[in-house]
């Protein structure tokens, strides 16, 4: 297959590109705008005969149309992805997540191309800490933030284009990812790189919020499975049973880096902060036979910490500006 990956210079997209080139014979083209979140260096060293990079915007119908005409499948990762940024300035989230997805769907309709849409468990809103429930494919949509509401909107556009126009699409909603190449604005890389620079980790509020962590490489294997075996029109939830509260994650990072486990600061909480996410991925496991490789969060976290320790040149250029921005907001 010739696969077009939108947002392939971002965190999860770049992990997917590495995964595909390593584990399959497919060729890959990345279409990425290289916003503040995109990093060309995340794609360094890939085989030139199987990999192409195109800098461009998914809202640009001409660029999108030309690329759709010469690929067999599209995996759509490109998005504005950070909740805190969406509280500060929602507009780019509407442009990329809604209008961008619309632009891709219209091209998919014209070219009859196989389309996989990447989404998030945040479209379902949040769960209480003491609720035994987990999200399933049938959980009603109830997004909380400008980010998650634009992702929910994009999911609904995909469903409508499947039903109304017969677009050959699938959707996956995944839980929180961690792993290499994640921007230092996000929770786990922010805390690791703070400790590596001698700064204290910053926990929003009491730190009781729970996220269901999955390694980005496991997300990639799940997406590849859906692309190859998924049923058109279906949605699949992706998760690896990795529920942990933020306080426990910070303590694990501090301990792994040889610091006292209480050497962190509590900072101003995120407005509207979702309490808990939890994924039931039985459908993907039972119907398509997928299973995660990183069964154990602690092992994946230790590998991730080692990656940030060894790759300071990759993250250092973004660190000061990111921290200055958080500091100006009391975080
Ligand atoms: P990211 O912010 O690291 O990367 C996004 C990439 O998209 C960047 O390379 C950026 O340059 C590119 N991009 C942004 N706007 C663009 C545009 N208009 N045209 C072309 N490229 C554009 O994001 P991520 O964390 O890798 O998330 C990727 C996808 O996975 C998103 O759709 C996100 O909603 C979804 N997702 C993320 C998580 C998570 O934990 N990070 C979990 C579930 C789902
Ligand atoms: O410094 C911090 N301190 C802190 O306590 C930061 C940056 C975050 N947090 C908390 C907020 C969340 O409870 O950590 C948790 C994780 O925060 P983020 O990394 O911002 O992720 P989240 O808001 O959960 O969203 C992520 O997972 C779902 C991705 O950014 C989304 O793109 C994805 O859809």
Helices and strands in order:
Elements: E1 2-6, H1 11-23, E2 27-32, E3 51-55, H2 61-68, E4 73-76, H3 83-88, H4 91-111, E5 114-120, H5 146-165, E6 169-174, E7 177-178, H6 187-196, E8 202-204, E9 210-212, E10 214-215, H7 216-229, E11 235-238, E12 243-245, H8 246-256, E13 265-267, H9 282-288, H10 297-310, H11 312-328
Parallel strand pairs: 1-2, 1-4, 2-3, 4-5, 5-6, 6-11, 7-10, 8-13
Antiparallel strand pairs: 9-12
Helix pairs in contact: 1-7, 2-4, 4-5, 6-8
Tell me what you see in this structure.
- It contains 11 helices and 13 strands.
- The protein has helices at 11-23, 61-68, 83-88, 91-111, 146-165, 187-196, 216-229, 246-256, 282-288, 297-310, 312-328, and strands spanning 2-6, 27-32, 51-55, 73-76, 114-120, 169-174, 177-178, 202-204, 210-212, 214-215, 235-238, 243-245, 265-267.
- Strands 3-2-1-4-5-6-11 form a 7-stranded parallel sheet, with helices on both faces.
- Helix 1 links the parallel strand 1 and strand 2 (27-32).
- Helix 2 runs parallel beside helix 4.
- The model has no long low-confidence stretch (mean pLDDT 98).
- Bound molecules: nicotinamide-adenine-dinucleotide and thymidine-5'-diphospho-beta-D-xylose (TDX).
- Thymidine-5'-diphospho-beta-D-xylose binds at residues 81-83, 120, 122, 176, 186-187, 190, 202-204, 209, 211, 246, 270.
- The site of thymidine-5'-diphospho-beta-D-xylose has 16 residues, from helix 6 and strand 8.
């Amino acid at each position: 297959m010739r696969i077009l990956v939108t947002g392939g210079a971002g965190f999860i997209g770049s992990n997917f590109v590495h995964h595909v080139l390593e584990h399959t014979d497919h060729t890959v083209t990345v279409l990425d705008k290289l916003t503040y979140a995109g990093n060309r260096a995340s794609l360094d060293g890939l085989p030139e005969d199987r990999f192409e990079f195109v800098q461009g915007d998914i809202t640009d119908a001409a660029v999108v149309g030309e690329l759709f005409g010469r690929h067999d499948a599209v995996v759509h990762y490109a998005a504005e992805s950070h909740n805190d940024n969406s509280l500060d300035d929602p507009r780019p989230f509407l442009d990329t997540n809604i209008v961008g997805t619309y632009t891709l769907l219209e091209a998919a309709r014209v070219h009859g191309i196989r389309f996989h849409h990447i989404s998030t468990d945040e479209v379902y809103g949040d769960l209480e800490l003491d609720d035994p429930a987990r999200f399933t494919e049938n959980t009603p949509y109830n997004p909380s933030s400008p980010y998650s509401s634009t992702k929910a909107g994009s999911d609904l556009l995909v469903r409508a284009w499947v039903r109304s126009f017969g677009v050959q699409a699938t959707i996956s909603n995944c839980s929180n990812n961690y792993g290499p190449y994640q921007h230092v604005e996000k929770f786990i890389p922010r805390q690791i790189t703070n400790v590596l620079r001698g700064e204290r980790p910053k926990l929003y509020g009491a730190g009781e919020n729970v996220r269901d962590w999955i390694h980005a490489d496991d997300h990639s294997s799940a997406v590849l499975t859906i692309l190859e075996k998924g049923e058109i029109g279906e949605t699949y939830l992706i998760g690896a049973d990795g529920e942990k509260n933020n306080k426990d994650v910070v303590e694990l990072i501090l301990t792994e880096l040889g610091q006292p486990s209480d050497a962190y600061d509590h900072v101003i909480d995120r407005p509207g902060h979702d309490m808990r996410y939890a994924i039931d991925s039985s459908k993907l496991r039972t119907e398509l036979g997928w299973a995660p490789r990183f069964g154990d969060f602690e092992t994946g976290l230790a590998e991730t910490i080692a990656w940030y320790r060894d790759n300071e040149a990759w993250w250092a250029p973004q660190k000061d500006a990111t921290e200055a921005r958080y500091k100006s907001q009391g975080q």
